[in-house]
């Protein structure tokens, strides 16, 4: 069985059911939100709500002229709004998503984790990131709800940072049928 917080998978447990008998099982959330992230874009809820074009995607195709321009986009932590970040990244179409981030010396020191949550992907699309140019490693949005954690070693962050998030896949496609994924949230934390 799966427990969802809104639409974010927060716990899973196995249950054995036998015909003709009653069964009960307990399940509790295993999700722990970071109390003081260096930044958070979006909300950990398993949905792309709040991102660019999310309000239209259940009834419009990504190529629909009524959709806002998908980008690529540069998001500046502290001054940009999540609604400027496209809800989906398409390989070769609107990737990478570029995030600029200024940190003080204390926040720039030490290891960190960049977490990218996706709600659905197509053709094996998944995130790949770089920090300051160095590699660190269909009318629906519901899918497997993958969360990707990228370890950022001590010394990789500086006081002025550029993070790029791209789409990688062994597959290819055309236009909005290229490998892609839909965002849930992006977070940098210690």
Automatic annotation (TrEMBL):
<protein>
    <submittedName>
        <fullName>Putative rhamnogalacturonate lyase a</fullName>
    </submittedName>
</protein>
<keyword id="KW-0456">Lyase</keyword>
<dbReference type="GO" id="GO:0016837">
    <property type="term" value="F:carbon-oxygen lyase activity, acting on polysaccharides"/>
</dbReference>
<dbReference type="InterPro" id="IPR016590">
    <property type="entry name" value="Rhamnogalacturonase_B"/>
</dbReference>
<dbReference type="GO" id="GO:0045490">
    <property type="term" value="P:pectin catabolic process"/>
</dbReference>
<dbReference type="InterPro" id="IPR008979">
    <property type="entry name" value="Galactose-bd-like_sf"/>
</dbReference>
<dbReference type="InterPro" id="IPR029411">
    <property type="entry name" value="RG-lyase_III"/>
</dbReference>
<feature type="domain" description="Rhamnogalacturonan lyase">
    <location>
        <begin position="38"/>
        <end position="188"/>
    </location>
</feature>
<dbReference type="Pfam" id="PF14683">
    <property type="entry name" value="CBM-like"/>
</dbReference>
């Amino acid at each position: 069985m799966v427990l969802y917080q809104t639409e974010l998978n927060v716990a899973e447990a196995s249950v054995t059911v036998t015909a003709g008998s009653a069964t009960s099982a307990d399940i509790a959330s295993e999700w722990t939100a970071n109390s003081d992230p260096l930044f958070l874009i979006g909300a950990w809820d398993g949905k792309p709500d709040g991102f660019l074009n999310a309000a239209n995607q259940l009834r419009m195709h990504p190529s629909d002229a009524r959709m806002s321009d998908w980008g690529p986009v540069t998001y500046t932590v502290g001054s940009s709004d999540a609604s400027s970040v496209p809800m989906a990244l398409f390989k070769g179409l609107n990737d990478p998503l570029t995030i600029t981030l200024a940190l003080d010396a204390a926040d720039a020191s030490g290891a960190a984790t960049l977490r990218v949550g996706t709600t659905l992907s197509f053709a094996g699309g998944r995130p790949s990131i770089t920090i300051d140019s160095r590699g660190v490693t269909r009318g629906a949005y519901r899918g497997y709800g993958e969360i990707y954690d990228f370890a950022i070693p001590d010394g990789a962050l500086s006081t002025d940072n550029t993070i790029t998030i791209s789409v990688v896949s062994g597959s290819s496609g055309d236009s909005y049928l290229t490998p892609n994924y839909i965002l849930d949230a992006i977070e940098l934390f210690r």
